[in-house]
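Researcher: Here's the sequence for the chain we discussed earlier.
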Amino acid sequence: MTLLGASAGIDALFALKEVQRAGWLRAGVADPESVAAHSWGMALIALLSCPPELDRERVLALCLLHDIGEAIIGDITPHDGISREEKRDRERAAAARLLGAWPRLWGLWEDYEQQRSPEARFVKELDRLDMALQAERYRRTRGIDSREFRESADLGLHRPDLRALLPESEPG
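Model: Thanks. This is the structure I predict for it:
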């Protein structure tokens, strides 16, 4: 599908720019970042830190696509009472609807979901790192208690090069 013939599909993808991150709302952050802003943050970190053995273009694409289903289903968190399986199924259906016209992009989304490639596993850690960095920013600028977010990030960050990018942990 050409870009010109895909304007309706692109409009649906752009909805991600309006989906606010639910975890920040739950933490009391007024006007939090959007899911698209989160994806941009991940892409920026990837530009700055992608190891040479990984395909940077693939990493950037995975950063931009990893939460695309949330343009339809919203940002579902563990606090929403929806099982992991149900969340996965909803995201898969939404991503298929949004990316079905672009098989290459659908394949990238599937790679991330299945964690098949080293790039997908790297991006999974970037997802956690971006959350931790944003939590620290919100702690400093808006006074939120960032411990829950930092602890969650700590569980998913295994690469020493990415752990090194975390700020020193401070109370709250």
